[in-house]
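Q: For a teaching handout, I want to show students what a protein-ligand complex looks like in token form. Below are the inputs, and the small molecule is beta-D-galactopyranose. Please produce the holo structure.
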Amino acid sequence: MTPNPSPGDLPGLPELCYGGDYNPEQWPPSVWREDVELMRRAGVNLVSLGVFSWSRIEPTEGEYDFAWLDEVLDLLAANGVGAALATPTASPPPWFSLAHPDALPVRADGVRLTHGSRDTYCVSAPAYRQACARIAEALARRYADHPALRLWHVHNEYGTWCHCDHTEAAFRRWLAGRHQTLDALNDAWTTAHWGQIYSAWEQINSPRATQYLHNPAQLLDFRRFQSEEMRAAFTEQKEILRRLTPGIGVTTNFVLGDWVPVDHARWSPSVDLVAVDHYPGDAGRAAEEQTAMYADLSRSWAGGGRWLLIEQAPNLIYADGRALAKEPGRMTRHSLSHIARGSAGVMFFQWRAPRGGSERWHSAMVPHAGADTAVFAEVAALGALLPGLTGIAETRVTAEVAIVADIESSWALSGPGMPSSDLSYEAALAQAHRVAGRAGYTVDFVAPGADLSRYRLVLVPSLYLVSDADAANIAAYVEGGGHLLVSCFSGVADEHTRIRTGGYAGAFREPLGIRVTELRPLAGGESVVLDDGRTGTLWSEEVGLTGAEATARYADGTPALTRNSYGEGLARYLSTRLDDAGYAAEFTAAAAEAGAEPVLADLPDDVEVVRRTGPAGALLFVFNHSREERRIEGVSGEEILSGETADGVLVLKAGGCAVVRE
Ligand code: GAL
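A: Here is the structure, written as tokens, with beta-D-galactopyranose included.
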């Protein structure tokens, strides 16, 4: 039997995948022929096929129409294009919803949704799960030996919510598995507060609409449950596909966003290839920094190995309610930034812009105007340059700095009744990542329980929730000689969102050598100026020293920033949200003290660098995101994209990028 693929190993896939979501079911066969011709011109070698095609494949229950899909797959194979063949379970057909109204999702306010969009199903409904298993099996049996089949793309963006009876029954089963006894659940959820003590499992609901604030531990467990429930649904399909097509990798596309009840870090071991959709939410410079951050997060989910950018928009960024066009060259920079940070290719949503449907205005590799366009020209140019990056799969990003990230802290921080709703976890992570990147450092993201020993410096931005075991892991890292930079409101709650008493920063009090006795969130627009001139916003704390020294103080003379020797290592604490300049000063001091080196020092503004190293040498990716030419010092080697040689200095035009074989 063929061994199952290991994570990040891409059996049958090209070294760099290039293509996008392909929806031939929306077009007549004459267009398919033009599609494959254009795919060849664009260098496309992989398409995500059939993602929303369930109603076309199974027009009535149990009757399949595979003829059109046979023809499309044959055409793709004949033109050297592989298929990431989807199981179309993110959009059950209308007949399914009519036959199984109990499989339609129910909102928190009790409204049952109706068919008419996509993602309108309850992932816990037995009829839905059975129908998913049937369609996955039918596809696997039909196409097991098709030469175009390269990868299974299960479902689309797991991330739905439901509060129906099926969901609640599954939630209770999951809770019984997690907490074992009602006493343990009552304790973990602090149900003595507001008289919520449960005396039977049936009394527990999903967090449906209620009179006032929800129990934060119930909300958190419900998110955890949904994540695990969707993982179970994915795994059911994966096992069917594995059994019938053992040599083909199975993945699903992760969707990012704070509304998504999926813990991608904990999910990742279940997929053969971490595949991520990325759509920046800001049209300014932040788009590049979001690209870099989510690409680094994706690499961390892939355990440092290869992952795949499976969707991005060719030519738009949604921001402020508008679909803004990317300026020429920006799509290429975003694409290469993903590759620099570990993506095994570049995939788009979508191949051809549709004439109708909700996404008729979403950009595409082939726009409404056709292939004789600047967008298609840039798509084809990118497709032509990717083969020049051969050998990239042998290289890896190595980082000396890590950022601890855990989505559970984000979920807990967005819970009800918090001291401030301004302290966004994502903003804290983004600041740490942005500041490190601007200083020329590449960082890994790591889970709080990960082995930290290979990092010289570890950043812990607002890690509100942490278990005892994970806190001990981080403390042991410092004790053994590691350097730590913790920022405000970290270590405050345990894994059940219960506050650690005796002083805030509770889980990290010992390594930090501090005890926080009061939280002092700042009003909107308010800021604090420290005695070294640095500025903080959003947050401040009353910090007591239990071993640490104060490196900067608030106006009232109390400590604001601290530094503590602990074991062989050093731990710093920031009790306010410093602005970028202030955080950068702390970061560079900490990195220097830890002996961590940037990829390149003294980077000009708006220049991004990433180095990948491998047995045959290093590849240095350099991006100029500014609108002016930039001279980057310290770069030598053959520039692959232009064929020119850099000898100590690389000059990049506005919006340009380079890949230098050092
Ligand atoms: C993704 C989704 C695609 C498409 C795209 C539009 O999140 O997977 O199907 O909707 O967004 O940006």
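A: Two things your students might notice: The pocket of beta-D-galactopyranose is lined by residues 156-157, 255, 277, 279, 311, 313, 349, 359, 362 (CB under 6 Å). The chain has a mean pLDDT of 96.
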